[in-house]
Amino acid sequence: MSRPGHTVMPDLLSRIAQEYGTPAYVYELAAVSAAAAMLTADLPAPSGLMYSLKANPHPAVVGRLVTGGNGAEVSSPGELAAALDAGCPPEKIMYTGPGKDFQHLVGALTAGVRCFSVESLVDRDRLADACQLLGVHAEYLVRLNTPRGSARGALRMTGRPTAFGTDLANRQEIAALLRARGRVRPVGTHTFSATNVDEPAALLQEFRSALAAVRTVCGAAEFAPRLLALGGGFPAPMARPGALARHPDLAAGLKSELDTAFPGWRRGRPHILFESGRYLTATAGTLLTRILDVKASGGRTFVVLDAGVHVLGGMTGLGRLMAPSAQPFTVGGSGAGEETAVTLAGPLCTPLDVLNASARLVDPRPGQLLAVPNTGAYGPTASLLGFLSHTGPVEVVVEGARIHSARRLVISSEKVAPLV
User: Which stretches make up the Orn/DAP/Arg decarboxylase 2 N-terminal domain (predicted)?
Assistant: First the structure.
């Protein structure tokens, strides 16, 4: 397959593979900046954009987005540390997640975080107790389980029974959540309908549906929100050629909805926030892998790579991410010739280690260097790094022709003492 219009040049990819080995992820910082600029341009102004670190917590990637003015959405002590280390001010961090440990909340508050998304009364009360312990105040958004807005999306977050948010039918709980308790007070709502919504019209409908629900909830409680976090769902190609979709009608459509539901939003009452992980990082990544073997079985050709589900897409079995269906291109060589249908398998001793059952390659042979495009989101940290104890992939950060840094992800163990 010929090389798609990717930002990292083949000679640099070859150099990285030679100097650092494979499997190797290559992250292009200029592509991160370009994605953030495109998405910001497609959102209604004024609004803010937070980076969801779960997509790619690499410090250089986080740092580039923070430097560009984006906030951070984090869901663990590790992600919080990455955001802070990247220079994100604590006041631009929102701590989310359906199961927040008390000590994790204490740690976040101690670090200066003051904005949280709460999923239930238990979650809210735990935050209040942490604030009481430390003698500090905090604000929170009430996460809502809003109705389904469309039939699209790789993964539904709301509009069905879920651990996320509070059901709209739970009116008493929502009313209680929209009242202050102790040192914590509500300032708005948090919604997130679905991930990777691949039709612009469907994405707009998801936001419209969420806004309608938020308007109803706030009206019933006579609650004037200061902040609305509307989530994301912005799509991006994964592990195959493709470009980021633009959303030319999104800003106009949302402005109309916001003018009706919350007329003061243009003056920042409420302030509007969006969040994205996949869109901001997917096209910035390239996974380098070498062919270890090419073999025939039952009339099919298997191409065995040194990258498998321990490197890419290992969470697909949990239904967390769509199957990668990786379609690499050859690095070096003319790429001319007839394509062959092959199964891309990894090196793990399980038949489930398949990256694509129907990829197409030109003259695959052992030793050949391949590059899987659009792998900057949900790559190594969303894979089975610990399975079979293979060495983790290298992560190389580049900008233009310059290599910024290289590191390797490792899993280590340490002795622990009893908690009490």
Answer: 37-282
Closest to 53 (Cα-Cα) out of 85, 5, 98, 21: 85
Residue 218 bears catalytic tag: no
Looking at residue 198, its amino acid is D
pTM: 0.93
pLDDT for 7: 64
Tokens of 61: 């990637």
Average pLDDT, the chain: 91
Tell me what the mean pLDDT of segment 84-89 comes to: 97
Which secondary-structure segment (H or E) carries 354? strand 354-362
Pick the catalytic residue from 115, 131, 218, 349: 349
Cα separation, 260 vs 238, whole angstroms: 36
Compute how many other C-beta atoms are within 10 angstroms of the C-beta atom of residue 51: 30
Question: Is the preceding peptide bond at 23 cis, omega within 30 degrees of 0?
Answer: yes
The string of pLDDT tens digits covering residues 302-327 is 999 999 999 998 765 444 444 568 99
Give bridge partners of residue 297 from the DSSP assignment.
300
Under 8 Å between Cβ of 188 and 228:
yes
- In degrees and rounded to multiples of 5, residue 134 shows phi and psi of -90, -15
Domains and CATH numbers, the chain: 29-282 (3.20.20.10), 283-408 (2.40.37.10)
Handedness of CA 43, 47, 52, 58 (dihedral sign): positive
User: Cα–Cα distances in Å, from 179 out to 95, 219, 227, 288, 322?
Assistant: 20, 14, 15, 52, 39
Single-letter residue type at 40:
T
- pLDDT exceeds cutoff 70 at 158: no
Kindly compute the dihedral angle of the four CA atoms of residues 363, 369, 372, 378, in this order, to the nearest 10 degrees.
140
pLDDT for 142 beyond 80: yes
Q: How far apart are the first and last CA of the chain?
A: 58
